[in-house]
Design a protein that fits this description.
homodimer; alpha/beta; Lyase, Ornithine Decarboxylase, Chain A, domain 1; TIM Barrel; 2 domains; eight-stranded parallel β-sheet; 18 strands; globular
Chain lengths: 383, 383
């Protein structure tokens, strides 16, 4: 494996783009940078907001944003009750790092993945979502084989039209199915409206979450009428959490992107009172200008294999005068709108449009304090 | 590093989704499959086409498509003269695997990357592109320090408007600059028209490559008038190579995608004589249906972190009745147009819209013969 070599620390692992103590100018590009001060300010700001505005509501940040046990530990230290994960491999990384409470906010349809998840339940509190009896059967079998308890949430479609049962009645029926299994513990509802995170208008997001909460409330009421408790109503993301927090229904928020702050989320329009924390862009993609063939064009060494363009182009807010024209596998082409073209060798910092899939392309987060490398934190990008 | 564990072979490395001998149904998803018979047929078909249609032209396949030393070896065995790489890390992986001739079809603007490249020139013939004196200075310094010869091509912009000098005169001037350095050897021109690969119309592609060849021919003529040889004119890709092959100018073709065949390239319209090989889709993304909440919707476990959507959605040609609706980090949502919804647990094979950045998201290629896993080949996805 040429991609893996022995690092300065003596540990086998992917090639390291930098070492602690280096200036950013010494970092080999493309590399993902995390400004530690901004990261910590974002974590503190979210914790403070929830403490003052929604004191009874738990924060369970989504670790799919960062895939970083180091960042998860900072979130826990700031009061998070645990993390969400989107894959079993992420959950394995978080439990191995000592995170005591993990929600797999997703469905499992493979007995080996169910067994991997059950294996974690001996070390941490593990919960997982279902929207069909087929998944319940797999989880029950895996929990029985491992002699553990898995906590289970029924996912209900509250407008995202991805996973989730289609009606409150179906949610109730599935909760009753879970309750039949002695090694499964019914916890409540997953009621995540992913699409609402990216509705640009404030009122549009508010109305979408009001509708989501109505559907989830009906389901919770029907479930409680059967005698089952429905303690957890979990959902929300960085784009909409103020509305879930104000709903009087949600008990837990799953915001993830606030730690890094995507260029795309930053495009959402704010509400009339504008009381949300002003999350900063903690994540940037460091890239080098490798070609500047005309006064109007610069080409840098970060392309489709270093950043995801699914939610729009990266922001060039840190480099006024340059705009993004397009990307290929290992290049981005920039147009020089004003000022001189950057010289070959110039480093630029792009702000990714969508942090989560961008992080998943990299092996390391390069943590810096005031532009000096402080640490390299691994990204748990395995499957 | 949770992402790295000891595999069954005892070697440290990323988690393996399968082992040889398994049926595809046993492969943990999402995983990239390579149908060996189709892969080998594609490699053979390209070699045969060039032997019969363009016998003097060398094939130097682009390894950025597969990042796989194993596939590069198959290409060499079928007559390739070497490979192209887009990054120094890819070149390191190819040289370590014994590939004797590597062209870095890209610019370097970092002395450490130049030094890494020069270190390879002791083991293999290494060439690299430039479009500015700044890159020449770095390469000359690195070659001198390592006491090696680096072969250098001047990249000229023939219509792609990415890297490359803007005129034949500038190409000549840069060739003369290269010739001043005793440890750099001027080889010729990189004349790659990336955008033309994706022009849908046959005539449009033909005219774009005719224009590219005119520009490159002017540059070669000017260079030869100085007394320098200009032996290599290299370029082309899977979308346009029939035109470069017929140009009478190009000496070397860089096609990469033909080994896997992207869904996007398959959308190109063919010429009137339709003499091109009919490359098959050797690469597919194996995914599992994890949720089927309504009769019209299925959700599978391959999303933005398992495939790149930059060149359009994956093809569902292997699953008539299903269409692609959208993707999020770890999900794709499919619409059931006809027939019953696939049951939870059903495996599907998506054909990626763009293979190169999709491969770069994965650690392994799962090679299968008639749906039985034959081998896992590592992807050299490091930096």
């Amino acid at each position: 494996m040429q991609a893996h070599a022995h690092s300065a620390s003596g540990q086998a692992g992917p090639r390291r783009p930098a070492e602690p103590g280096m200036a950013l100018a010494e970092v080999e590009t493309p590399a993902l940078l995390v400004d530690r001060a901004t990261l910590e300010a974002n974590i503190t700001a979210m914790a403070s907001y929830l403490r003052s505005r929604a004191p009874g509501i738990r924060l369970r940040p989504h670790a799919k944003t960062h895939k970083s046990p180091d960042i998860a530990r900072l979130q826990m230290a700031a009061g998070a009750v645990g993390v969400c994960c989107q894959t079993v491999a992420e959950a394995e990384a978080m439990v191995a790092a000592g995170i005591p409470d993990v929600l797999l906010s997703n469905q499992i349809a493979d007995i080996r993945k169910a067994a991997r998840l059950a294996a974690l339940a001996g070390q941490a509190r593990i919960s997982v979502c279902v929207d069909d009896v087929a998944q319940i059967a797999l989880l029950a079998a895996a929990a029985r084989d491992a002699d553990v308890t898995l906590h289970v949430l029924v996912e209900i479609d509250v407008g995202g039209h991805r996973c989730g049962v289609a009606s409150p009645e179906a949610a109730r029926d599935l909760a009753l199915q879970i309750a039949k299994h002695s090694q499964l513990s019914f916890d409540g509802l997953q009621a995540y409206h992913g699409r609402a995170q990216h509705f640009r208008g404030y009122d549009e997001r508010r109305e979408a979450i009001a509708s989501a909460a109505r559907i989830a409330r009906q389901a919770a009421t029907l479930i409680r009428q059967t005698g089952l408790a429905c303690e957890t109503i979990t959902g929300a993301g960085t784009g909409s959490f103020e509305h879930e927090a104000a709903s009087g229904l949600y008990t837990e928020l799953q915001c993830g992107s606030y730690v890094f702050m995507d260029a795309d989320y930053a495009r959402n329009r704010r509400g009339p009172n504008n009381e949300l924390p002003d999350f900063g862009h903690a994540l940037s993609l460091l890239t080098t200008v490798i070609s500047a063939p005309t006064p109007e064009r610069a080409v840098c060494d970060a392309g489709l294999k270093a950043m995801s363009l699914d939610s729009g182009p990266p922001s060039l807010a840190r480099h006024p005068g340059l705009t993004f024209t397009g990307a290929s596998d290992e290049h981005s082409t920039l147009t020089v709108e004003t000022g001189p073209a950057p010289a070959i060798g110039t480093q630029l910092q792009l702000l990714p449009g969508h942090c989560d899939p961008t992080v998943a392309m990299h092996d390391w987060l390069v943590i810096h304090d005031n532009n000096v490398v402080a640490a390299l934190w691994p990204v748990a990008r395995g499957r």
